[in-house]
Structures are given as structure tokens and as C-alpha cells.
Amino acid sequence: MSDTPGLPAPPPPGASALPAGTYDGDTVLVTGAGTGLGKAIAVEFARLGASIVVASRNPEHLAAGRRAIEALGADVEVVECDIRDADAVAAAFDAAEERFGLPRVLVNNAAANFPSPAEDLSPNAWRTVVDITLNGTFLVSREFARRHLAAGSTASIVNVGASYAWTGGPGFAHSAAAKAGVKNMVETLAVEWGPYGIQVNGLVPGLFPHEDMTDDIRGSLDLTHEKDPLQPAMRVGERQELGWAATFLASPYARFISGHTLVVDGANWQRRTLTNPPVVTVRDQLGRGAFPKE
Question: Under 8 Å CB-to-CB from 244, ≥6 apart: which residues?
Fold first, then answer.
């Protein structure tokens, strides 16, 4: 290991490259904004003046999202919404419009995931992850766009993706397939809706430890005590860095950026080694053992 320190640490939370008030008068709807990275993204929009609509199926997550935004003195509305249900999605936008008017920015952050060998995935498990991650993202995007198309107003969509949309995701076949669809949707919808003034971009997070990580991710991190040397940046991400990227993509300063997916991971997904490590099957990595024989 060289003595280079890696990429410098970012400015502290609360800082921003964008002018104060960049989002004054705007409303931003973020799905899954009650916890984790969705909440971190919503917080950065709120710091810049936006009113925030937090959409989630979980009442506890809604309450947590409300507390985080209110702590900044920003306006917030919470809406219970299952993004797999088109009627529930429409009702969520109705509630947002009634409180603040039509949101100008949509961040599709909600997703579902868990590790499993592909051969162990039940039809229901596959459908659930794809339905939330891919179908839900489309349904929310469609409802948002239809309302802006009817109003003749400009808007911006940011879809949160994953780097295994490019590389594949052993152990996560369901989520990787869904996220590949989300990436393609960014590129397709940017072309379809660009003539009407609607930007569509993607945002892919790297490793951003936070208190709301799922048990499988937390368990993997707990097995690795020194995480920084495993990243080309020699450090993990800090949550505000992802929020800054999202606020830039939807800002007036990025209006000519559309159909692009921005990866914020310190180049980790592009890492290659001169000698590959031995192959360990997904089943062995997850402690599943041999597939049962009939």
C-alpha cells in the first residue's frame, strides 16, 4: 500500500456548492426519504430552500423523515404510498399538490433488495423486488411526467440506481436486473420527455455507511473492520456528498445534462486487480451450502 492519502475529505455537512436559496419556491418529492440515503438527499434539497414531500409505505419512516426536515426549519409533507400501486401514487401527488403545488423535482429512491443465490429466489421474491424497484420507479415517474405534460411545466427526475446495472450483481440477480431497467429508463425517458422540458438523470451511490442500512449490508460491513483501504479513494463516502450530487443534477446549473447516470463512489466500481482472487460461490459467501439434491 502506498503512502498516498486518497481523495480528500469533503466539506462538512451544511455546506453546498450551490447558492443559498437555489430551490426557494420549489417542491421536491423523494420516495423512501424517511431513512438512509433518501433522507440525506432530501435534507440537502431542504437546506437549499425546497419544500419536501416524503413518500414511504412505513409510518415510522415517514415520522423520521418529517423530523429530519423540520429540524432544518423547512416545510415538509409526508404521504404514505406504496409505489407499486398506481392509484396510491396518484393520491400521493394529489396530497403533495394540495399542500405545496406540483413538485418540480422527483427523486426516485425507494427500492427493495436482499441477498440470495439466484436459484433460491422464489417467484414472489423476484416479483417483489422488480415490482418495487423497477415498476414502482416507472409508475411514479409516469404520474409526475403526466402532470407536468398537462401543465406545460418543466421538471427534473433523478433515479437512484446501482453500479451493478452495468456489471451484474452476483447474489442480487433480482435487484441488478431491476436497476439495469432503471438505468435504461433514464436514457429512454430523457429522450421522450426532453422536448417538453423534463430532465431525467440517474444517480448511483457507492459505499455510504449510515444508521439505516439493511441488515445484510450492515452485516457485511461489520465483517470488515478497515473499510477505507478497500476503496480506491481510501475512504468511504459521506452522505452529504450524495445529496450534493442530487441537488446539482436537478438544479438550473445542470439543465443541459439529461439521460446521464452519475456514479458517486470514488471509482470503486471501476476497480480492477492484476490478479483476481479465488472464486467463491455466492452460496458459500452466504453460508447456504450445497444446493439440495432431489
Answer: 10, 16, 17, 44
C-alpha dihedral over 61, 221, 260, 233, to 10 degrees? Answer: 130
Name which CATH class applies to 27-285: alpha beta
- Burial (CB count <10 Å: 0-12, 13-18, 19+), residue 18: middle
Compute the distance between CA of residue 137 and CA of residue 108 in angstroms, rounded to an integer: 6
**Does the structure show a pLDDT above 80 at 226?**
no
Q: Is 23 annotated in the active site?
A: no
Catalytic entry in 23, 164, 196, 253: 164
Q: Is the pLDDT of residue 106 over 60?
A: yes
SS3 letters for 210-231?
Answer: CCCCCHHHHHHHHCCCCCHHHC
Query: What is the pTM assigned to this prediction?
Result: 0.92
Burial class (CB in 10 A: 0-12, 13-18, 19+), 135: middle
Q: What is the mean pLDDT of residues 113-119?
A: 96
